[in-house]
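Researcher: Quick sanity check before group meeting.
Model: Go ahead. Protein one:
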Amino acid sequence: MNIYDLTCEWKEHIPENLDEQLFELNSKTSILIQRVSNDKLRNKLDELQTAATKCNRSKNECEAETHYVAYSDIYEKLHEQLGYELRSLY
């Protein structure tokens, strides 16, 4: 189901149960990010989460797409760096 119309305005809000789940997952992600000891990586992960949150909270599809592009470019690279960081702790 599309939740936006041809004017790029959202037709309806995200369902309340999904919004609550998203909030819970964002909270857990914030806690996990703070556990990363590498300051540079932690800051970049925090920026990634902020960009993803902006995408989820966008006023319209066009704004969401802009935020999505911004964080999708760095998503893979940060996950690779996080994996390397975690493996170095074994």
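Researcher: Fine. The other one?
Model: Protein two, sequence then structure:
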Amino acid sequence: MYKVLVLLAIFVGVANCYVAIERKDISVLGGIGIPEIPGFKPPFRDCGGAGTLIDVRIIGWDGDEYFTPGQLYTYELTFMPSTAGPVSLKQEYCFNGGFCMGIIDVDLPISNVQPGFATTVRFSFTPNDILSGQSIELKTSIVHSTNLLVEVCVALEIKIR
């Protein structure tokens, strides 16, 4: 497992970002295919990508439409990449007017993903209280660092308390 600590400013506040990568060989699935993504339903939305999305989880979130400012949430995204190579994690907030603001854009060190291996990217984030009362789309994507190919993208419509 590889880790990186990233401190990012969101407007005036600060969010802590911890990123970890984990790989598992899932070739044992053979011809049965990849199972449906458990719990992948609204408010989650698949926003594209060449890889196969396997699972999305947010630890610390009860599944309603609200996130609490100042609370730490751990986001886990498991996918099977379509091609090999190093990847980057990108996350942005998009507001109703169409304005998007990047909050995480980091190359994942020693992240040479391989097709046939499930890869889990795990990171933590904390919404800032400057966003209180806002409805936003939280868009998270895994992108190849070299050619910008999007492996997976997941969007989530949320409100900040």
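Researcher: One line on it for the slide.
Model: The two ends are 33 Å apart (CA to CA).
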